[in-house]
Specification:
Layout (H helix, E strand, L loop, with lengths): L1 H28 L6 H4 L20 H24 L1 H29 L6
């Protein structure tokens, strides 16, 4: 146990020393390509924002990203279920049907509210 602790401490100290060293080496010897195009801001396909910072910006991008995350987490829950569906039996199958019904209800609600319409 002591040897594993010593080896872990050596590895941690080694990583703590090597990572900043690599960062320093790449800063010193890395390319320095600058210029007007590189320093221009670029956000969500809009090359330049003209106007005040308080101007209105469409929240549809963020809403779509949140919806993607919500429905993507569904796959995180469905994968382990699919792997162990035989061990879970009918109870596991019923639970997944309820889960998917809730997700389908949410999707129908989103479609009825017109969230995915970009007009």
């Amino acid at each position: 146990m002591v040897t594993e602790l010593v080896l872990s401490a050596i590895a941690l100290i080694g990583i703590a020393l090597v990572v900043p060293l690599f960062m320093l080496v790449t800063t010193v010897f890395g390319p320095r390509a600058g210029g007007r195009a590189k320093n221009d801001p670029y956000e969500s396909g809009v090359k330049r924002m003209i106007g005040l910072a308080e101007q209105k910006f469409s929240v549809k991008f963020y809403l779509l990203a949140i919806l993607f995350l919500l429905f993507d987490i569904e796959a995180v829950f469905m994968y382990p279920w699919a792997v162990s569906v035989r061990e879970l039996g009918w109870f596991g199958f019923t639970e997944m049907v309820v889960f998917m019904a809730l997700l389908l209800t949410g999707l129908i609600y989103i479609i009825k509210k017109g969230v995915l319409n970009w007009r």
